Here is the input.
Amino acid sequence: MYTIREIQDRIMTKQISCTELTKLYLDAAAADTLNAYITSTPEHALAAAGAVDRKIAAGESLRPLEGVPVCVKDNISTAGILTTCASRMLEDYVPFYDAHAWTLLKGQGAVLIGKGNMDEFAMGSTGETSLFGSTANPVDPRYVAGGSSSGCAAAVAGNLAVCALGSDTGGSVRLPAAYCGAVGFKPTYGAVSRRGLVAFASSFDQIGPIGGCVEDVAALLDAITGKDPEDMTHRGLTPVRPQLTGSVKGLRIGLAGEFFEELPASVAAALTETVSVLENAGAEIVNVRFPLLQTCLPLYYILSSAEASSNLGRYDGIRYGHRAPEGDTLHETICRSRSEGFGAEVKRRILLGTYVLRAGYKDDYYGKAQKLRLTVRAELEKLFESCDLLLTPTVPHTARQKGESLEPVQTYRSDLCTVPANIAGVPAVSVPCGRDENGLPIGLQLMGRAFRDGLVLNAAYAYELATAGAYLAKTDRGVRL
Amino acid sequence: MSGWETVIGLETHVELLTKTKIFCSCSTGFGGEPNTRCCPVCTGQPGSLPVLNEKAVELAVRAGLALNCRINLVSAMDRKHYVYPDLPKAYQITQFDVPLCEAGFADLPSGKRIGITRIHIEEDAGKLVRENGKIYIDYNRGGVPLIEIVTEPDFRSAQEVTEYLELLRLTMRGIGVSDCKMQEGSLRCDVNVSLRKPGEPFGTRTEIKNLNSFTAVVAAIESEVRRQKAILDSGGRIIQQTRHFDAARGETADMRGKEDAEDYRFFPEPDLPEIVLSPIWVEQLRKTMPELPAAKKDRYVQMLRLAPDDAAQLVKFNAVADYFEQACRGLKDPRIAAGFILTQMFAILSTEAQRENWLPSVTAGELRELSLLVERGSINRNVAKTLLTRMLETKAHLKDLLSRQDVSALDEQQFRQICRQALTENERAVADYKRGKDKAIKALVGAVMRASAGRADPIEAERQLRRLLEE
Here is the structure.
């Protein structure tokens, strides 16, 4: 994977023009067999690249994201460019407006290579629910890239983009980053505007950066946290890049045994080594407890499905999206459109979400889950009194083989370690920390208090420095400079 | 009504007078080309988010204060789910658990107090238009801010309901919350009707929706009461249901498909934080509340000695009331100015729109001047009326009219002289009168009016003529 610095150095020193560089990424994306992209955007890319080259010719310097080839997940609205959410429902949907985060990134001079493949409507953790087929893992294409930001993670790890914007509702940035050997970050809830992110679960969703190193992820995050008065849940974030000192001296890193139960040997070993690395770097390891961990999964699936069933109600084929041939009544037409437009996993979540909100059941499921969410938040806050960061595996296993058919609930278990951060709205990063016996990357997760995104990323940065980025993905695929 | 007591509760939707919609910056406003006043937010495009319009909250609180409600300093928005093509997100953002205002009351002119259960804010849906056998949807109205005002089941007659609706309209217009035009849909009324024997618990109620005029409301209530009475008298039971009123037939009918109690799956709106109001802000609104029309009317009656009906007419439109108050500043008897407005001016500015905008060609200052002249006795009232009408019709200024001809009141001597002259010059009429034909006096009054070029007062003239004829 190339870093932003490597790319921009080459452009600034005129070793390669931005246009030539962009063409390399566009060509690689076109020839790609990973199925990382849904839509290629050469028109935008070359126009943006041209503007960068004019700046270089005029002797101007580049801003932090300028000229950088990026992949944007296909549930983030890009005006005039297909935004399908990998669903038949939005197969032909072209938004009128840009997501706020994309407006900011575009304004910074980033070059859009294409829209990233994903699980349909961001529901999934393998990438296999996409209408356009699953995305393969660049480290070993027999394995899945993970989801739901499958295309983004694969593009970065497979050298089809330098960094990417994904979205994370229950782990959808961190998990694929972990599987593919890239760095993925879920910001504090409210750090990045959700305007233009096609809503899945409104109180869980956040747009998050994926990159080839922690520095790049930090730079991308700073580019997209700009204030948006049109998202009332948006708070913004103080810049994180300046907080990357690389030192973890005196930092208290918590280990909660609940996250480490029944781990495969390779994952357990990699995490143990990670702990040593951080200890040697000056961090203090603290034992903590998080007894509510197992409850987090059903809690997440009840609440996120409830919100999803609500957010996806608008897809009826009337104003936009897939419309089935007319039935005898309006009701029939709408039912047909939705039945044809949605895949099985999406339908499953809508049914579950509707069920838990039904009169008579709401108190037992949704009501209880809401109360429990507050308890989980409180417990995590208390935990952060004894430590500054929580260290866990990102996923309690590594990438699965493609086509491995599991019961849905089994697949849901992949999210065990990632959902607590979404439930509590706190920041969490995944960095690669090893390989399993098949060479698939293992992800390490660090979680922190709300709005301490800089602290979280700095610890990840320190780890990366201490290991000299040994575990970041290095594949033969994609662009070669 | 053979022992049945009518029990009625009202749910009124009132469109707020904000410039923009409740969750986006599209403009509100009636009419216009379909789907020209909408955006990603109010058409529910993927990824769109609502932003709460603070003015809507302010107007809702004003409405709550005017209706004596308790204002909830912390309230929240909720999602209400149902499927209908005019609802783009398949949920309406409204307030379910905790509304902005609660536990208020409205005192009807007749003296009865109606309990206001709650007032909450919500977004309006779009409009379905049926044309050429097809159904079209216009989202211009989608997202317009509404308040829903729910009353206790305190009404006992259609007459009380009408009083309430008129008071509501007057008040909401008076404080600038809504223009309450039922024909434009900015005031909509759903009525809940049930019957019971006095003293017994409430009976089963039916809801009548889609009533778009005051007369429709009255007719619907009366026909529904008849219908329920017939069922109950024959020993039947009322089914709880939603009905619509067929104005042509004059009866209510079951609204098919809306019978099952819908499960709206309410849950708190995650895209909007709680609405937290500062007590100081609410207090400030209370202090700066415009005078309520009911209070203004009372003031006109008590302090300015206007007849209650006259006062009621004047307070109906803010602009008219303001004009009146300007015109009667410094007048000993404001009733003169009131009379001019209510007769001469209202005759010419006769439509609702004209009275709402109130742009007469006579300034308040000129009306005051004219009223002063009458008050002092410098010109008589009839002359003033004529002058005023001419000013309204020709846009002439009072100053010019006064200078052009002598319109001053006649002095006593002049007046008697003209009367005596009229008698001398109209022997025939005098003879008729003396013979017993009373109507003949009119001819003599006419002669006096002509001779004085209108400056005489006809009532005074008749009195004087009769006196002279007696001699």
